[in-house]
């Protein structure tokens, strides 16, 4: 561990300015990990720019430094040193962010996805980690150059909290609970983060959920629902308002795989997959060009919504041995 951290830190210290990026439509781990790296670079007085292609969901405005994660709009600068966090492949950051990176850029890749394709010059990929933020926790703990502060601790805790579903998912290991306890001792307001990030919702999100539940279908151990563009617009909802809807399908008694199909633009369907115990949804997502984790994955498929639903359901049945 110490050799890996020394190599990582020497590489970072050798550059004057770093770009820090994560995947589009960021969740708590993407944002928490981005901010954690930002706070580390601040301690070292290293210039940095944090980018994300997507608009940051309002609930994350409580995080210190969140207003310094920018969208790449009108950014003329290109970067020769980039730290990717929580991105299984380079394409996940989006074309606009990719255009900010020079062809010969030095890439550091910190991630926990099993489908990560090791695209960095330095790759710290721990597929057993509950979150990318857990990897950063280990980095800080073992480093002789980084001190914990409330901003850094809150960022790391946010990533772990959200990617474990509030410490309820199967990736909640004894180590995760120890790390969370240590972060609470450092002053993290865990109850406030849980309330705002996991419990608080918006009226458009509830209206969207209401519409999604009217489409709910069940076939054996598979349950799924769908949202089209018209319904999204009618509810005045945004991308982040769809978060969590897939779990209503997965949480049904007797269901192992829950799926949400949502139309993001005409003939482009984003598919979110969750599983309970048996089915490897990362394998299913990978088949359609996506990726993720064994219990949570996703992909984007071109085609009409009914046809995409049929294709995915048939493939899930095949994976379960029912086709």
TrEMBL record:
Q: Where is the DHHA1 domain?
A: 237-317
Q: Which domain of life is it from?
A: Bacteria
**Bilayer-spanning residue ranges:** none
**A GO MF term:** nucleic acid binding
**What sequence ranges are listed for the domain DDH?**
19-160
Name of the protein: Phosphoesterase RecJ domain-containing protein
> Native species of this protein?
Seinonella peptonophila
Tell me the classification of the organism that encodes this protein.
Answer: Bacteria, Bacillati, Bacillota, Bacilli, Bacillales
